[in-house]
Structures
1.
Amino acid sequence: MTEWRENIITFARKHRDSVYINGPDRNRVALTFDDGPDNVNTPVIIDSLKKYGVKGSFFFVGEMAKIYPGVVRHAFDNGNLVLNHSYKHDNLTQKTNHQIQADLNQTDKIIEDIIGKKPALMRSPYGDTDEKVVAAATETGHKIVLWSIDTLDWSQRESDNIVHNVIDNIRNGDIILMHSTSRTNETAKAVPIMIEELQKRNYDIVDLETLLNVQAYQ
Ligand SMILES: [Zn+2]
């Protein structure tokens, strides 16, 4: 287990109602997609989710959402959650409380202008979180949702590897981290196969609102 993982488990335990790394021990898991939207792979992923009747959770970056509002709306209109992944993917632990709040508010505003709803869930870039980030997230109405399986899809992995990494490690309540950017076409390829393999193993694929029993929007 990586040092980040060990630390975050302890940290999440300490902040039980404001920081989540997985859901309860039942046969439900969530697919989450960070860093988008883009106008190629994000739409392909949205269409795959739709084809299988599965809802995903997208943590979009504010400045990307501003560039591709149509893709944000498309994700939302198809029943997926549209959530906050900061304005331009800065490491929030390097900012002051005031700067973190400004960053999250700015991103909420961009999303709200597009879908009419303000996210109540955020994921800190790189999963970097500390007391200050939790305080600022809470003050701006957000719970922090991290993950329990990293597909490492950003590191030029092939779709087979992405799928296997998930299927070989899946447990009840897992939150699966993937990315939906212009570089993650292997993720877009992996999603339908992953959904089929998870469903074969009787996992219900749900959004984070359902997995964690929390509100996605403020
Ligand atoms: Zn990210």
Note: The beta strands are 19-20, 28-34, 57-60, 81-84, 121-122, 143-145, 149-150, 175-179, 204-205.
2.
Amino acid sequence: MNMQTDIKNGDVFEIELEAWTDQGETLSHINGLRTVVFGGIPGERVRVEILRVKKEYVAAKVLETLSASKDRQPIDCPYFGECTGCQYRHVTYTTQLEVKKRYLEEVLSSNLSLHNGIVKDVVPSPTQDNYRNHARFTINKEGMLGFIGKETRRFVHITKCLLMSDHINNLMGTLQGKAAQTRQLSIRASEFSEGHLIQPKLKEAGIDVDTGQPFYYEHINANRFKVASPSFFQVNNDQVSNIIEAILGSDMIDENSRVLDAYAGVGTLAILIAPYVKYVLGIEDSAAAVADANENSDGLANVSFEVGKTEDLIFSKDFDFDVAILDPSRKGCAPEALQGLLERTPEKIIYISCEPKTLSRDLAVLNTKYEIMEVIPFDMFPHTYHLESMTFLRLRNG
Ligand SMILES: C[S@@+](CC[C@H](N)C(=O)[O-])C[C@H]1O[C@@H](n2cnc3c(N)ncnc32)[C@H](O)[C@@H]1O
């Protein structure tokens, strides 16, 4: 029990839900304390159970909806609320997209003054389930696969995850009860993959599937990508195709474009746009990913890759580019990388982001010299609060 309050785990309250939090829960107050509620929708009156009492906030989950929002839909997953991987499964898909767009507008507006219409509608995911090609499971002492609840920190044994590809769900079934040697297990496979990748290698007797592969292959459109175990690959193949289509349909690149693809991974974006530009240089920090990228781009004369940090190579590399693609991890770009861009002033920048807060911070820096033309959100992660977006920027004259 927390000394500041007499609220304790397991207590039940009836409350009104006020607003969305930045992680897909709803905000409310109990006895004046900030309360973060899983499984609700703002405006609803609900009965909640307290899960955890912390100094900064009280965590709760919806037990019963007393007055339901029109945006609510039936929950189709038996683990929802115990497993906290999906925050929006109870919210209609149209509303999920609206909530994400509004959130992105709010976060960008906190650092930038954007006029209406700059943030476009969210591009929906062609499939809202079975879209993930990568699962990271927690393993319990009995070797069962599952996930950890965010607030309860309890292990939730899962026999099927609706977000994962069928291929992953089948492999998960085969490995249940046989993975006790490890606490974490990564499975990568999709309807677009050749083979699968399971790490670490499992040594238990009776496992009738190969594990411990150093790499596997994913496909985007007609292209095959080798992905080594340490390398990053986007989790939703269909949405990568949509991002590429949006770039090709824009005026950001043409056959004369000399492109820097910073944070290049296994070369996915560089390789998919290479046929439409003069050349692409990819920069990537992971040597394993660059080895994949070199193999993936074999036969393409106008693509090359360098191992290194964007913030270093942008200054040291003697290379001309008029378009920069930035696709950093959630922490965004290093200040030195942004400084490098402001000094080298490519005519156009395409900033692909998976974290609106760092995007907003970085755009405020770039905005000193670049105009923000449009921001296109992509729903790369349906049923979760995560949000991918692509921003087009253009160097201001003078
Ligand atoms: C979000 S992923 C994007 C990969 C790729 N663009 C794609 O679409 O698959 C970010 C990549 O940046 C790499 N990375 C992280 N920090 C970096 C840095 N400072 N400089 C260059 N690459 C970095 C990571 O290894 C990872 O491959």
Note: The pocket of S-adenosylmethionine is lined by residues 232-234, 263-265, 268-269, 283-286, 289, 309-311, 327-329, 334 (CB under 6 Å).
3.
Amino acid sequence: MQIITIAATKGGVGKTTLATALATAALVARPGIRVGLVDLDPQGSLTDWWNRRDKREPQLLRQPEGDFRFDTAGARAAGFDLIVIDCPPGFSDILADAIATADLVLIPTGPSMIDLDAIEWAETLAETFSMTRHFVLNQAIYRSRLAGRAVRELSERGHLLRQVVHHRVAIAEAMRKGLTAIEAEPTGAAARELAALWAEVGALLGRVP
Ligand SMILES: Nc1ncnc2c1ncn2[C@@H]1O[C@H](COP(=O)(O)OP(=O)(O)OP(=O)(O)O)[C@@H](O)[C@H]1O
Ligand SMILES: [Mg+2]
């Protein structure tokens, strides 16, 4: 079993969106694997998304009321192959625990100056947990100068995944319906980007995606 934690102290950068996208992309890439989603955010956005779905996969691993520590041993015993953990914004013990338990931590960020300023915390966390900073640039405007600058800056500050996720209406629209763009518009540009992101993430995890 491998665990991906999606972590960013900044709010609204796409943590929940990318958690849903990676989990569904993993299922499309390898049908039959057991993928679990974990919502450690008291806001419950991931749980709300899952409740809007009429599909049971990826499975939502419900946390006991008020408990935001993920039960890794329980998930392993239950036979999951892949777990994707969605974290709340801000610094917290919840975030620290989720990072400590992960095989891979992905740090989504938007392309703006404010977004990039907010990833300084990643330096501190990376030192504390001896982890590589794997950045995912999300909500980039296609071919914008802002996105180009963000790619350069993030490449200097850590490992930026090659696949940029652009701002796409299909991504937000699908979320409203309890789907991801991969499911709602499988031949669209958003789905292509998210599938390519999963291929890259899968390779980082050392598994054939
Ligand atoms: N690539 C994208 N294109 C278009 N809309 C996006 C994209 N990524 C995220 N969004 C939208 O941006 C908003 C914030 O995304 P999301 O909820 O995933 O962020 P978050 O980091 O989980 O936020 P929070 O910190 O509140 O948990 C949502 O409305 C989502 O639909
Ligand atoms: Mg969220």
Note: The chain is about 45% helix and 15% strand.
4.
Amino acid sequence: MNDVIEGIVGKTISGQRSRTPARLDYIQSATGLFLALFMWAHMFFVSSILISNDFMYAVTKFFEGAWLIDGGSPLFVSLAVGIVFVVFIVHAAIATRKFPVTYRQFRAYRSHMKMMKHSDTNLWFVQALTGFSMFFMGSVHLYIMLTNPGNIGPYASADRVVTGWMWPLYILLLLAVELHGSIGLYRLCVKWGWFEGKNAAQSRKRLKKVKWGVTAFFLLLGTLTLIAYIKIGIDHAGHAGERYIPASEVSQ
Ligand code: HEM
């Protein structure tokens, strides 16, 4: 159905096919690649808490630009969040054109999916569902980061997770983003023929294994990280709002 509509709107008045659908596809791939790679980096930065509070503090100060101006400024964080937020919105807006828009289309897709029993078709469904859920969950997180850029750090983050009740959202968001991101990267590889090699069928099987490995790795890293923030947040709940002072500054 979507193809029929696209076929109709894809024709310009002069009878030539429009390049818009191809351009939108390209923008969707490029924004998706940016977001997926950003999420890998993000998970490593956030998991700095697993090494030590001081290390997470140092990472935070780095992103506040403490290497550039004395003491740094949360404005750098807001700027980065603003850029990610815009890319996130563009990616989501373009993705909506692939969603089934009526219940009839949804039913048709589901019965097609049951009949085919094709794992890539099932993956598409997981990706659409997790993507839809991230419209809401991702926006909540990004808006909080955008408006509270100075409230990141070992205690500030842990207080937000526990006292600020962000942990239920983070559990769901973590699941959604890790499934969505790695399925998305897998689909990009298949779509644009990256790592195809000589035997496309064989490399697709290999890619799928790598995809599950990547999902498992980031889910494990994210879960351990979340447990670390929850533990610190529970211990610090009585002093919620007090900021972390690194060991180097305490001894001064
Ligand atoms: C530049 C933009 C972003 C910044 C600065 C940022 C920053 C952070 C920080 C500091 C935390 C630790 C908890 C806290 O302080 O509340 C966190 C956790 C988290 N963020 Fe982001 N984030 C960004 C974008 C995103 C995006 C786009 C997503 C996914 C849509 C995302 C998903 C998550 C998840 C799932 C967690 C929980 C981590 C875990 O379970 O270990 N973040 N983020």
Note: The chain is about 75% helix and 0% strand.
